[in-house]
Specification:
Length: 120
């Protein structure tokens, strides 16, 4: 299974199982995309806390146990993966925008006649 397939599978799971996320009540996957990165981090920590309450010390095990395989633990883990994926997408978009702004500023300060950038 490729990373893209895995990504689609968690979002498909979310849609099929009507996953909700703890934020000012409960929100949908679509709502997550509207949140700030700081809010996503809060949700991720909330889900993580609930997950670790269920699995306890088993979360650090390489062997699947009844706790890590429980339906609720799997649901929380998938929810965490979705929040993390959306957070990383937002972070990447933010970093690209910041780099573009820096490039534009650099061009503005070091550009030459005719709009061409000079070296050095």
């Amino acid at each position: 299974m490729t990373k893209k397939t895995e990504k689609m599978d968690v979002f498909k799971y979310a849609a099929q199982n009507a996953l909700r996320f703890p934020y000012r009540g409960n929100i949908t996957v679509e709502d997550l995309f509207k949140l700030r990165m700081e809010d996503l981090d809060i949700i991720y920590k909330t889900l993580g806390s609930a997950y670790y309450k269920i699995v306890g010390d088993d979360c650090d095990s390489l062997i699947d146990t009844d706790k890590t395989n429980s339906e609720e633990a799997q649901r929380l883990k998938i929810s965490m993966d979705i929040v993390k994926e959306i957070f990383n997408d937002k972070k990447e978009t933010f970093e690209k925008a910041r780099e573009a702004a820096e490039d534009a500023e650099d061009y503005e300060h070091h550009g030459s006649e005719g709009g061409r950038r000079t070296q050095g």
